[in-house]
Design goal:
alpha/beta; 8-stranded mixed sheet; Rossmann fold; 276 residues
Length: 276
Protein backbone atom coordinates (compact mmCIF):
# COMPACT_ATOMS: atom_id res chain seq x y z
CA UNK A 1 0.00 0.00 0.00
CA UNK A 2 1.24 3.45 -0.85
CA UNK A 3 2.33 5.34 2.24
CA UNK A 4 -0.21 7.97 3.22
CA UNK A 5 1.02 11.29 4.59
CA UNK A 6 -0.08 12.43 8.03
CA UNK A 7 -1.78 15.49 6.56
CA UNK A 8 -3.69 13.35 4.06
CA UNK A 9 -4.66 10.90 6.80
CA UNK A 10 -6.15 13.45 9.14
CA UNK A 11 -7.94 15.14 6.25
CA UNK A 12 -9.71 11.90 5.30
CA UNK A 13 -10.29 10.51 8.80
CA UNK A 14 -13.72 10.57 10.43
CA UNK A 15 -15.24 9.80 13.81
CA UNK A 16 -16.13 6.26 14.80
CA UNK A 17 -19.50 4.65 14.40
CA UNK A 18 -20.47 2.45 17.33
CA UNK A 19 -18.29 1.52 20.28
CA UNK A 20 -14.53 1.02 20.21
CA UNK A 21 -13.53 -2.56 19.43
CA UNK A 22 -11.45 -2.73 22.60
CA UNK A 23 -14.47 -2.27 24.88
CA UNK A 24 -16.64 -5.16 23.71
CA UNK A 25 -18.94 -6.62 24.94
CA UNK A 26 -21.10 -3.61 25.79
CA UNK A 27 -22.87 -3.55 29.15
CA UNK A 28 -26.65 -3.91 29.33
CA UNK A 29 -26.69 -0.70 31.40
CA UNK A 30 -25.48 1.43 28.50
CA UNK A 31 -27.28 4.77 28.20
CA UNK A 32 -28.55 5.75 24.75
CA UNK A 33 -29.47 9.35 23.98
CA UNK A 34 -31.30 10.04 20.72
CA UNK A 35 -30.66 13.02 18.43
CA UNK A 36 -34.27 14.23 18.29
CA UNK A 37 -34.33 18.02 18.31
CA UNK A 38 -30.57 18.16 17.79
CA UNK A 39 -28.01 18.77 15.09
CA UNK A 40 -25.60 15.91 15.72
CA UNK A 41 -22.86 14.18 13.79
CA UNK A 42 -19.32 14.36 12.43
CA UNK A 43 -17.66 17.67 11.56
CA UNK A 44 -14.16 18.74 10.49
CA UNK A 45 -12.13 21.14 12.63
CA UNK A 46 -9.45 23.21 10.83
CA UNK A 47 -6.11 22.84 12.66
CA UNK A 48 -2.53 23.92 11.95
CA UNK A 49 -1.69 20.95 9.73
CA UNK A 50 -5.05 20.27 8.07
CA UNK A 51 -8.32 19.12 9.62
CA UNK A 52 -9.27 16.73 12.40
CA UNK A 53 -12.64 15.00 12.76
CA UNK A 54 -14.92 15.71 15.69
CA UNK A 55 -18.39 14.78 16.86
CA UNK A 56 -20.70 17.73 17.50
CA UNK A 57 -24.17 17.92 19.06
CA UNK A 58 -26.26 21.05 19.60
CA UNK A 59 -29.91 22.11 19.73
CA UNK A 60 -31.44 22.25 16.24
CA UNK A 61 -32.71 25.78 16.82
CA UNK A 62 -31.19 28.81 18.49
CA UNK A 63 -27.71 30.28 18.73
CA UNK A 64 -25.15 31.66 21.18
CA UNK A 65 -24.95 28.25 22.85
CA UNK A 66 -22.66 27.67 25.83
CA UNK A 67 -19.78 25.45 24.65
CA UNK A 68 -18.60 22.21 26.27
CA UNK A 69 -15.46 20.44 25.09
CA UNK A 70 -15.83 16.70 25.74
CA UNK A 71 -12.45 14.97 25.96
CA UNK A 72 -12.14 11.31 25.11
CA UNK A 73 -10.89 8.35 27.09
CA UNK A 74 -8.04 6.23 25.75
CA UNK A 75 -10.56 4.56 23.40
CA UNK A 76 -11.16 7.63 21.24
CA UNK A 77 -14.38 9.39 20.22
CA UNK A 78 -16.56 6.29 20.07
CA UNK A 79 -20.27 5.92 20.80
CA UNK A 80 -20.05 6.56 24.56
CA UNK A 81 -18.31 9.92 24.10
CA UNK A 82 -20.71 10.81 21.28
CA UNK A 83 -23.67 9.99 23.53
CA UNK A 84 -22.30 12.33 26.22
CA UNK A 85 -22.24 15.18 23.71
CA UNK A 86 -25.91 14.50 22.90
CA UNK A 87 -26.76 14.56 26.63
CA UNK A 88 -25.24 18.04 26.83
CA UNK A 89 -27.03 19.16 23.67
CA UNK A 90 -30.40 18.09 25.10
CA UNK A 91 -29.67 20.57 27.91
CA UNK A 92 -28.97 23.44 25.52
CA UNK A 93 -25.21 23.13 25.10
CA UNK A 94 -23.05 22.98 22.00
CA UNK A 95 -20.88 19.97 22.84
CA UNK A 96 -17.87 18.95 20.76
CA UNK A 97 -15.57 15.94 21.06
CA UNK A 98 -12.53 16.29 18.76
CA UNK A 99 -10.45 13.24 17.76
CA UNK A 100 -7.21 14.09 19.55
CA UNK A 101 -5.23 10.92 18.71
CA UNK A 102 -6.03 10.84 14.99
CA UNK A 103 -2.56 11.83 13.74
CA UNK A 104 -1.06 8.93 15.66
CA UNK A 105 -3.75 6.40 14.66
CA UNK A 106 -7.43 5.40 14.86
CA UNK A 107 -7.64 3.70 18.25
CA UNK A 108 -11.34 2.88 17.87
CA UNK A 109 -10.43 0.18 15.33
CA UNK A 110 -7.98 -1.62 17.64
CA UNK A 111 -9.29 -4.54 19.67
CA UNK A 112 -6.52 -4.71 22.26
CA UNK A 113 -5.72 -2.03 24.82
CA UNK A 114 -2.05 -3.02 24.62
CA UNK A 115 -2.10 -1.83 20.99
CA UNK A 116 -3.78 1.42 21.98
CA UNK A 117 -1.43 2.52 24.76
CA UNK A 118 1.68 3.00 22.53
CA UNK A 119 -0.34 5.18 20.14
CA UNK A 120 -1.70 7.37 22.91
CA UNK A 121 1.78 7.68 24.43
CA UNK A 122 2.94 9.39 21.22
CA UNK A 123 0.37 12.19 21.46
CA UNK A 124 2.08 15.48 22.45
CA UNK A 125 0.29 17.65 24.99
CA UNK A 126 1.17 20.73 22.90
CA UNK A 127 -0.68 19.23 19.92
CA UNK A 128 -3.73 18.47 22.07
CA UNK A 129 -3.90 21.96 23.56
CA UNK A 130 -3.52 23.54 20.11
CA UNK A 131 -6.27 21.31 18.69
CA UNK A 132 -8.59 22.29 21.53
CA UNK A 133 -7.90 25.98 20.85
CA UNK A 134 -8.85 25.32 17.21
CA UNK A 135 -12.01 23.51 18.31
CA UNK A 136 -13.09 26.49 20.41
CA UNK A 137 -12.46 28.83 17.46
CA UNK A 138 -14.54 26.59 15.20
CA UNK A 139 -17.35 26.42 17.75
CA UNK A 140 -17.60 30.20 17.87
CA UNK A 141 -17.17 30.94 14.16
CA UNK A 142 -19.00 28.01 12.58
CA UNK A 143 -21.39 26.50 15.11
CA UNK A 144 -23.10 29.38 16.96
CA UNK A 145 -21.10 28.92 20.14
CA UNK A 146 -20.69 31.54 22.87
CA UNK A 147 -16.99 32.15 23.59
CA UNK A 148 -17.92 33.71 26.94
CA UNK A 149 -19.47 30.46 28.18
CA UNK A 150 -16.82 27.79 27.69
CA UNK A 151 -16.59 24.59 29.73
CA UNK A 152 -14.58 21.40 29.46
CA UNK A 153 -14.99 17.88 30.78
CA UNK A 154 -12.94 14.75 30.17
CA UNK A 155 -12.66 11.13 31.22
CA UNK A 156 -9.53 9.15 32.20
CA UNK A 157 -6.94 10.37 29.64
CA UNK A 158 -9.32 13.27 29.03
CA UNK A 159 -9.51 13.98 32.75
CA UNK A 160 -5.81 14.82 32.82
CA UNK A 161 -6.24 16.97 29.72
CA UNK A 162 -9.12 18.81 31.38
CA UNK A 163 -6.83 20.03 34.16
CA UNK A 164 -4.10 20.96 31.68
CA UNK A 165 -6.42 22.82 29.28
CA UNK A 166 -7.95 24.79 32.17
CA UNK A 167 -4.41 25.95 32.98
CA UNK A 168 -3.62 26.62 29.31
CA UNK A 169 -6.73 28.66 28.48
CA UNK A 170 -7.86 31.11 31.19
CA UNK A 171 -11.00 31.85 29.12
CA UNK A 172 -12.42 28.49 30.24
CA UNK A 173 -15.14 29.23 32.78
CA UNK A 174 -15.16 25.79 34.40
CA UNK A 175 -13.83 22.26 34.03
CA UNK A 176 -14.85 18.85 35.35
CA UNK A 177 -12.17 16.15 35.35
CA UNK A 178 -13.32 12.55 35.74
CA UNK A 179 -10.58 10.32 37.21
CA UNK A 180 -7.74 11.89 35.26
CA UNK A 181 -4.21 10.99 36.25
CA UNK A 182 -2.70 13.67 38.49
CA UNK A 183 1.00 12.85 38.78
CA UNK A 184 3.57 11.28 36.47
CA UNK A 185 7.09 11.42 35.11
CA UNK A 186 7.68 14.39 32.82
CA UNK A 187 8.65 13.60 29.23
CA UNK A 188 9.28 15.71 26.15
CA UNK A 189 5.76 14.97 24.87
CA UNK A 190 4.03 15.21 28.26
CA UNK A 191 6.09 17.75 30.22
CA UNK A 192 3.53 18.53 32.94
CA UNK A 193 0.87 16.82 35.01
CA UNK A 194 -2.06 18.38 36.86
CA UNK A 195 -0.14 18.50 40.13
CA UNK A 196 2.45 20.73 38.41
CA UNK A 197 -0.10 23.37 37.42
CA UNK A 198 -2.38 23.14 40.46
CA UNK A 199 -0.97 26.02 42.52
CA UNK A 200 -1.12 28.49 39.61
CA UNK A 201 -4.55 27.42 38.33
CA UNK A 202 -7.14 30.21 38.02
CA UNK A 203 -10.01 28.28 36.36
CA UNK A 204 -12.32 26.37 38.74
CA UNK A 205 -12.04 22.63 38.10
CA UNK A 206 -14.09 19.94 39.82
CA UNK A 207 -12.28 16.62 40.08
CA UNK A 208 -14.36 13.44 40.40
CA UNK A 209 -12.36 10.41 41.56
CA UNK A 210 -12.91 6.85 42.76
CA UNK A 211 -11.65 5.66 46.13
CA UNK A 212 -11.09 2.17 44.70
CA UNK A 213 -9.23 3.39 41.59
CA UNK A 214 -6.11 1.21 41.51
CA UNK A 215 -4.40 3.39 38.90
CA UNK A 216 -4.95 6.76 40.58
CA UNK A 217 -4.09 6.31 44.24
CA UNK A 218 -5.63 8.40 47.00
CA UNK A 219 -2.25 9.76 48.07
CA UNK A 220 -1.94 11.47 44.65
CA UNK A 221 -5.45 12.86 45.03
CA UNK A 222 -4.49 14.32 48.41
CA UNK A 223 -1.30 15.73 46.90
CA UNK A 224 -3.40 17.51 44.26
CA UNK A 225 -5.83 18.81 46.87
CA UNK A 226 -2.95 20.22 48.88
CA UNK A 227 -1.47 22.03 45.85
CA UNK A 228 -4.87 23.47 44.92
CA UNK A 229 -5.13 25.20 48.30
CA UNK A 230 -2.59 27.80 47.21
CA UNK A 231 -4.39 28.55 43.94
CA UNK A 232 -7.07 31.17 43.32
CA UNK A 233 -9.23 28.77 41.34
CA UNK A 234 -11.54 27.50 44.09
CA UNK A 235 -11.21 24.04 42.54
CA UNK A 236 -12.53 21.02 44.42
CA UNK A 237 -12.06 17.26 44.37
CA UNK A 238 -14.79 14.77 45.27
CA UNK A 239 -13.88 11.15 46.02
CA UNK A 240 -16.50 8.40 45.79
CA UNK A 241 -15.16 5.91 48.37
CA UNK A 242 -16.38 2.68 46.74
CA UNK A 243 -16.04 3.68 43.08
CA UNK A 244 -13.43 2.13 40.78
CA UNK A 245 -11.76 3.80 37.82
CA UNK A 246 -14.18 4.67 34.97
CA UNK A 247 -17.25 4.62 37.20
CA UNK A 248 -19.08 6.93 34.76
CA UNK A 249 -18.56 4.57 31.79
CA UNK A 250 -22.05 3.06 31.54
CA UNK A 251 -20.98 0.70 28.73
CA UNK A 252 -18.37 -1.05 30.94
CA UNK A 253 -18.45 -3.28 34.06
CA UNK A 254 -16.79 -0.45 36.02
CA UNK A 255 -20.03 1.61 35.87
CA UNK A 256 -21.49 2.62 39.22
CA UNK A 257 -24.91 4.12 38.60
CA UNK A 258 -25.35 5.99 41.89
CA UNK A 259 -21.93 7.65 41.80
CA UNK A 260 -22.17 8.38 38.07
CA UNK A 261 -25.54 10.11 38.47
CA UNK A 262 -24.29 12.10 41.44
CA UNK A 263 -21.19 13.15 39.48
CA UNK A 264 -23.31 14.26 36.51
CA UNK A 265 -25.51 16.38 38.80
CA UNK A 266 -22.42 17.93 40.34
CA UNK A 267 -21.00 18.64 36.87
CA UNK A 268 -24.14 20.47 35.74
CA UNK A 269 -24.30 22.46 38.98
CA UNK A 270 -20.59 23.33 38.69
CA UNK A 271 -21.05 24.61 35.15
CA UNK A 272 -24.08 26.70 36.08
CA UNK A 273 -22.39 28.06 39.19
CA UNK A 274 -19.39 29.19 37.14
CA UNK A 275 -21.22 30.66 34.17
CA UNK A 276 -21.20 27.88 31.56
Amino acid sequence: MKEITRRKFIATATVATGFALAVQPISAEVITTDAKGLVAGAVKIPVKDGEIPAYRAAPATGENFPIVLVIQEIFGVHEHIQDITRRFAKLGYLAIAPELFIRQGDVTKLSNINEIRPIVAKVPDAQVLSDLDATVNWAVKSAKGNAGKLGITGFCWGGRITWLYAAHNPKVKAGVAWYGRLVGDATELQPKYPVDIASSLTVPVLGLYGGKDTGITLDTVEQMRDRLKSSSSKSEIIVYPDAPHAFFADYRPSYREKDAKDGWKRLLAWFKQNGV
